[in-house]
């Protein structure tokens, strides 16, 4: 029975990963072990499950039918495991979490390390990535995602807070370039009097987004006078500190610099703009205790951390806003 299940697991992993090598990585086995498991499964069934060539592999007709039934069977086994896990009194087992690089390292990881330290039978594995990871394919228990979510019947979500955004600059920069009267005026003039720190993603330069006075979301693309651009908000913060221009940054990231007076929030926004931070997990009949404990901890501890420097935050001794 053990070998039979191992063969089915290897077969399903090979189908979903696309080849034996990637299936081996997912299952933490060697490629030859995965290939042998599938070969023994084919021998037991008396049929070929894959059509193989030197460059590709595809399912046979029997393989496709067998995969669909095996996938459902493994899903039922996963649900059974989750039901048992949900009935436990203490989190245990492996908790695999993915989160964006910056907020994952600075906020999520420290909190989840506290959870792991409080529960010695819990093993924590974190994957830091700014790309959207497929939770089912990568066997992820929990994902932390920023911004709007795509519709999915396979996933569940819970809002953890918001990353409030602001426009910041160094006092030295503002001494050379007077602050815009308001953000809508800056957008209207395309920021003609200013230099900018830009943020780029894999898809290209990322626009600054605001709520206008009418409450509608508006986008501003910094013009050609971008003196620094990067795909790291930490690096953009350093560029702003160095006086290279106006930067659109999360309030929590620059809260210390604002308190110390090394960065200044350039203007208030009538309707603050923030990106929702959400916990996302595969939909299941019973949520495992380890996942529920992580979500509850993040939901209780992240909001005050994200609120640093955001709307309604008290002004400290070194803080000021240029309007």
Automatic annotation (TrEMBL):
It comes from the Bacteria. Keywords: DNA-binding, Transcription, Transcription regulation. This is DNA-binding transcriptional regulator, LysR family. One of its GO terms (molecular function) is sequence-specific DNA binding. Residues 1-60 form the HTH lysR-type domain. Belongs to the LysR transcriptional regulatory family. Pfam families: HTH_1 (PF00126), LysR_substrate (PF03466). The keyword Mitochondrion does not apply. SUPFAM superfamilies: Periplasmic binding protein-like II, Winged helix' DNA-binding domain.
């Amino acid at each position: 029975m053990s070998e039979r299940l191992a063969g089915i697991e290897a077969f399903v992993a090979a189908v979903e990963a696309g080849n034996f090598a990637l299936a081996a990585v997912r299952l933490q086995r060697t490629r030859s072990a995965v290939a042998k498991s599938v070969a023994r499964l084919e021998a037991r069934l008396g049929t070929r499950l894959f059509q193989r060539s030197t460059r590709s592999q595809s399912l046979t007709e029997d393989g496709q039918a067998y995969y669909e039934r095996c996938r459902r069977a493994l899903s039922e086994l996963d649900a059974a495991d989750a039901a048992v896990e949900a009935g436990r009194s203490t989190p245990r087992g492996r908790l695999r979490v993915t989160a964006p690089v910056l907020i994952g390292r600075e906020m999520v990881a420290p909190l989840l390390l506290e959870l792991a330290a409080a529960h010695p039978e819990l093993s924590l594995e974190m994957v830091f990535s700014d790309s959207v990871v497929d939770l089912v394919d990568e066997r992820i228990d929990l994902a932390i995602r920023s911004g709007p979510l795509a519709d999915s019947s396979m996933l569940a979500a819970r809002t953890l807070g918001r990353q409030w955004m602001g426009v910041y600059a160094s006092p030295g920069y503002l001494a050379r370039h007077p602050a815009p009267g308001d953000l809508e005026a800056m957008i209207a003039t395309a920021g003609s009097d200013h230099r900018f720190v830009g943020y780029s993603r894999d898809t290209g330069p990322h626009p600054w987004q605001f709520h206008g006075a009418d409450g509608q979301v508006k986008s501003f693309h910094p013009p050609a006078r971008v003196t620094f651009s990067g795909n790291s908000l930490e690096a953009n913060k350093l560029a702003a500190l160095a006086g290279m221009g106006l930067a659109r940054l999360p309030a929590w990231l620059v809260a210390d610099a604002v308190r110390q007076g090394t960065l200044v929030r350039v203007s208030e926004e009538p309707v603050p703009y923030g990106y929702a931070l959400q916990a996302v997990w595969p939909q299941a009949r019973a949520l495992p205790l380890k996942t529920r404990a992580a979500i509850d901890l993040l939901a209780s501890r992240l909001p005050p951390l994200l609120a640093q420097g955001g709307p309604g935050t008290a002004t400290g001794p070194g803080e000021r806003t240029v309007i």
